[in-house]
């Protein structure tokens, strides 16, 4: 498999946004369930536990990462079925992510946005999100899960070459 990178960078007042999109022939409510319900997120990202609500923190396990680490994910905003904003802090820094859904005539576009303080590391970050979003697609359409080896390092130069 040779996936094609889809991400783009946009300059903002506070830094840079990395934006990737995926389109689903499904209502927004169904796509929303894929990104918020624990048993469905476990299929493409990882299971989570805790009392999910704006202002609270849940514990997520990254099933598709080496060693399957667990980390805290803060729910910044949850506006079903249109907007989920989350943040976390790890050894690589702060992560601020939004998932925005827009439905038209039974087709839902998922707009994934990572708000970046710096573009440093984008060559690694972009392929990672492409991988996860394609895992989401596979979890929904029943296709075989994708392999990270198809995304990295082959997409690294594309993302490293992006700039705002």
From TrEMBL:
Signal peptide: none annotated. Pfam families: AHSA1 (PF08327). CDD domains: SRPBCC_CalC_Aha1-like_6. InterPro entries: ASHA1/2-like_C, START-like_dom_sf. It comes from the Bacteria. Residues 25-137 form the Activator of Hsp90 ATPase homologue 1/2-like C-terminal domain. Belongs to the AHA1 family. This is Activator of Hsp90 ATPase homologue 1/2-like C-terminal domain-containing protein. It comes from Nonomuraea gerenzanensis.
């Amino acid at each position: 498999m040779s996936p094609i990178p889809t991400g783009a960078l946009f300059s903002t007042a506070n830094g840079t946004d990395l934006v990737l999109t995926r389109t689903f022939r499904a209502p927004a409510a169904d796509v929303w369930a894929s990104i918020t319900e624990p048993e469905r997120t476990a299929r493409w990202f990882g299971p989570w536990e805790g009392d999910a609500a704006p202002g609270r923190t849940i514990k997520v396990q990254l099933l598709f990462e080496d060693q399957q680490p667990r980390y805290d994910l803060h729910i910044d905003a949850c506006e079903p079925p249109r907007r989920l904003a989350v943040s976390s802090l790890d050894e690589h820094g702060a992560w601020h992510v939004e998932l925005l859904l827009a439905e038209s005539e039974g087709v839902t576009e998922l707009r994934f946005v990572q708000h970046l303080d710096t573009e440093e590391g984008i060559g690694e970050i972009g392929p990672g999100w492409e991988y996860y979003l394609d895992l989401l697609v596979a979890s929904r359409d029943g296709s075989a899960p994708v392999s990270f080896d198809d995304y990295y390092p082959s997409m690294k130069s594309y993302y490293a070459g992006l700039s705002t």
